[in-house]
Design brief:
Length: 226
């Protein structure tokens, strides 16, 4: 059991000891996740509002003819007819609008990707500054796998924490936008789960190289560093 908790405790000590660096590492993730939450909630809200307006019209028939439209018995031209109910129209429109939140989410994901690059850069700086610490740990018997897991857990923990803070910030901004009446926003559970999962995945992906780089350090050369 100890071998599972030791990397966690070591990573936690590293995060707490270097508070400013940890904050800067999380900042990009926080902004990226908040942007994903806000933009996707705006897209979902717009979709829900349009569908609600269509459904409020009732279940009348919309008859579409080539070059003409008939609604409520008023026809503008003649031709072969295709008939839709309001429910069918709302369903069709919902499918068409479903791509809008995804598009907004893709745009916001770019900022999350930039945050991941920031994680990698700061973790590389962290490895450089803690070279002597890594050398001491290796001299005391730490294996490459132990060093690798320590830094990878740090990256995952910072990304997860940044993701949670970003969700709270994004929800607060979305609520503020909706409460002021500027536009309707909808923050659903799938958006939150997606944003947090992607943030952790980005932390693991961009934290892999710094963790691997730290595990490959020669203990003798690491101890000589100042």
């Amino acid at each position: 059991m100890k071998k599972w908790f030791e990397p966690l405790s070591t990573a936690w000590v590293g995060v707490v000891t270097h508070k400013l660096r940890s904050f800067l590492t999380m900042l990009g993730i926080v902004i990226g996740v908040a942007a994903v939450i806000v933009l996707m909630s705006i897209g979902r809200g717009a979709e829900a509002r349009i569908i609600s307006n269509i459904e409020s019209m009732g279940s009348d028939l919309i008859t579409i003819r080539p070059g003409a439209v008939t609604f409520g018995g008023v026809r503008s031209a003649t031709g072969g007819a295709a008939t839709l109910t309001m429910e069918e129209s709302a369903s069709t429109l919902s499918e068409a609008l479903g791509t809008r939140p995804l598009l907004l989410g893709d745009i916001a994901a770019i900022s999350l990707l930039v945050g991941g690059i920031g994680v990698m850069n700061i973790m590389l700086v962290s490895v450089l500054e803690r070279t002597r610490e890594i050398g001491i740990r290796k001299a005391l018997g730490a294996r490459d796998r132990d060093i690798w897991s320590q830094f990878l857990i740090e990256a995952a923990f910072l990304s997860f924490t940044g993701g949670i803070i970003g969700v709270i910030l994004g929800w607060a901004v979305s609520y503020l936008i909706s409460s002021t009446g500027l536009m309707t926003t909808v923050v659903s559970a799938d958006i939150v789960i997606l944003a947090v999962s992607v943030s952790v995945g980005i932390g693991l992906f961009f934290g892999f190289y710094p963790a691997w780089n730290a595990s490959r350090l020669n203990p003798i050369e690491a101890l000589r560093s100042e």
